[in-house]
Amino acid sequence: MTTLTHSPHAHAPISIGKVMATVMAALVPTTLYGFWLYGWPAIFLWSVAMASALLGEAFILRIQGRAVRPALLDGSGALTAWLLALSLPPFAPWWVAMVGALFAVVIAKQVFGGLGQNVFNPAMAARVMLLISFPFEMTLWAAPTPLASAGAPDFMQGLAITFGAAGWDAMASASLLGHVKTEFSRGLDLIHSFPGQFELATAAWGSRAGSLGETATLFILAGGLFLIARRIITWHAPVAMLLGVAIPALIASGIDPARFLGVWPHLLSGGLMLGAFFIATDPVTSPNTGAGQFVFGLGCGLLTWVIRSFGGYPEGVAFAVLLMNAAAPVIDRYVKPRIYGRTRKGAPQPVKEG
Amino acid sequence: MNLLSRLKLRGGVHPVGRKELSAEAPICTLPLPERLFVSLQQHIGAPASAVVAVGDQVLKGQLIAASQGMVSAPVHAPTSGRVVAIGDYPAPHPSGLPVPTITIEADGDDHWLDFDPPADPMALSPEEIANRVGAAGIVGLGGAAFPSAVKLNLSRKSGVTTLIMNGGECEPYLTCDDRLMRDHPRAVVAGILLIQRAVAAPQVLVGIEDNKPEAIAAMRVAATGTGVQIVPVPSMYPMGSEKQLIQALTGKEIPAGGRAADIGVLVHNVGTAYAVHEALSLGRPLVKRIVTVSGGAVSVPRNLEVLIGTPAQALFDFCGGYKEVPARLVMGGPMMGQEMTNPNVPVIKGTSGVLALTNQEIGRPSPAACIRCSTCVRACPVGLLPLEMAAHIRIGDLGAAVDLGLKDCIACGSCSYVCPAHIPLVHYFNYAKGDLSAKERAKLKQEATKKLAEARNERMDRIARERAEAARQRAAKKAAQEAAKKAAKKAAAEAKSQETEVAA
Question: What is the side-by-side strand order in the sheet with B265-269?
Answer without folding.
Answer: B228-233, B203-209, B162-167, B265-269
